[in-house]
Design goal:
The protein is an alpha/beta fold. Helices cover 49% and strands 12% of the residues. β1, α1 and β2 form a beta-alpha-beta unit. α6 runs antiparallel to α7 and α6 packs antiparallel against α9. InterPro entries: Bact_response_regulator, CheY-like_superfamily, Sig_transdc_resp-reg_receiver.
């Protein structure tokens, strides 16, 4: 079923809320990044649903058909490119399939998987958010008339960033799973990039490079873990 099933009347877009009547499924493991999406959807008139992994997203898509899916490429249980490929070829097709990532190479990966568009992180500009979605809609579904758009960026809740740090601390505390080191390096790089946290972003990048080159990672893990704990202890403001 679609998310509009059961509604007696679908709201029509307005000049200030051009996505009114649409539902956006955000597949994103970062609460900080997802809070930015929540604010963008709220100001655009769209409803938002969230899935934090591939498994959760697939459960949702088995029951509902959103208007838009925004899929992060780095997820804890696999690559978002897998889901983009599935959603872009499913019938009936989701109207708009978008990828998102803070990695420079990810845009090409998203398009190769079948995405209609791409959001480089951080996603915080309302005009960019709305224009990207609307430009990817079928012509008959694009809202007509002038739109009033603010260029002011959204500001996600700092508590959401702290939630991401708690998640990272839990993963880093699992010494037995080497594969998760690759995930957490990518996760922290993306979150820190979105939040403008240069120190943590640099440390996460160093951990990713050490993993890719097959070097010992004890020092890099300790550095990343220390920075994460500082943010959990509120010793660093973002």
């Amino acid at each position: 079923m679609t998310d509009s099933d059961g509604l007696t009347q679908i709201p029509r877009p307005t000049a200030t809320r051009p996505l009114l009547g649409m539902t956006v499924l955000v597949v994103e493991d970062s609460r900080f990044a997802c809070d930015a999406m929540r604010l963008l959807c709220l100001r655009s008139g769209a409803r938002i649903r969230r899935a934090d992994c591939l498994q959760s997203a697939r459960r949702h898509l088995a029951l509902y058909r959103p208007t838009v899916t925004i899929i992060d490429l780095g997820l804890p249980d696999g690559s978002g490119a897998e889901l983009i490929a599935e959603v872009s070829t499913s019938l009936p097709r989701v109207a708009v399939v978008l990828g998102t990532s803070g990695d420079s190479f990810a845009e090409d990966v998203a398009y190769a998987a079948g995405a209609d568009g791409f959001f480089p992180k951080p996603v915080e500009n309302l005009a960019t958010f709305q224009n990207t979605i609307i430009s990817c809609l079928p012509p008959e579904r694009q809202p007509r008339g002038l739109r009033l758009v603010s260029e002011e960026p959204v500001r996600p809740d700092p508590l959401a960033y702290r939630d991401d740090m708690a998640h990272a601390a839990d993963v880093l505390g699992d010494d037995g799973d080497e594969r998760m080191l690759d995930y957490i390096a990518q996760f922290l790089f993306g979150v820190a990039h979105s939040a403008g946290d240069l120190a943590l972003r640099t440390a996460a990048e160093g951990l990713a490079e050490a993993r890719a080159e097959g070097r010992p990672t004890k020092a890099e893990i300790a550095r990343v873990a220390g920075l994460v704990q500082d943010r959990l202890a509120d010793r660093v403001a973002i």
